[in-house]
Amino acid sequence: MRALVETHGPDVFSVAQAARRAGVTSAAPYEHFKDRQEIPCGVVSEAMDHLQTAKKSAAAAHPTGSLEAVAAIGLAYVDFARVGSGVFRLVFGLTEGHENAPDRQQKGASCLGVVVQAVGDRLGRPLEDPDVQRRAYMLWSFVHGHSFLHIDMKTNVTTAEIDDWLYLTEISGAVLGLAAPT
Question: At 53, is the secondary structure helix, strand, or coil?
Fold first, then answer.
């Protein structure tokens, strides 16, 4: 299913085509999913797990509390969008029914929680601190916007070269009120 989303886009996929690719009958997916609408939700769930793992791994490659750990989380997010833009669009486009899907809500909170943890570590404050929460949200919104601008090929509107690592360390430093390394 993930490959079909990447090939044909998040809105166009065929259960029969997915079953053929998997080498099963077209009825087989319904042994695991109650209807066609539930199938993309499975892809979203798996993608959110992958994104959370990628962000944690990226942060772990740098010292806890460092600006680099925060920026690495952002870079993992951008890379996730770049490598799987169709799935990225599906994750953030498939919002209908999220209010009735506590598992997806929890996965979303856990993904953001990686950013909150890194911000709390950097600032030396508890995760529940409203300022930690606000700054984590600011970082997420910057990186999310940058990711969409990149996958929508809108980054060519400026003559400046945008180096993702430099951009993300500068943004992280600005949002966290710290000077970014040069």
Answer: helix
Residue type, 6: E
Q: Assess contact for 19 and 45: CB atoms under 8 A.
A: no
Residue 182: band (very low, low, confident or very high) from pLDDT cuts 50, 70, 90: very low
130-151 vs 164-175: helix crossing angle, rounded to 10: 160
Task: Look at residue 135 in the predicted model and tell me its pLDDT.
Answer: 96
The answer to pTM > 0.70 is: yes
- In angstroms and rounded to an integer, the radius of gyration of the C-alpha atoms of the chain is 18
Amino acid identity, residue 44?
A: V
Domain ranges of the chain: 40-175
CATH of domain 40-175: 1.10.357.10
- Helix, strand, coil shares of the chain, percent, nearest 5, are 70, 0, 30
> Position of tokens 């996929």?
13
Q: Residue for token digits 């969409």?
A: 148
Q: What is the CA angle 60-63-66, rounded to 5?
A: 110
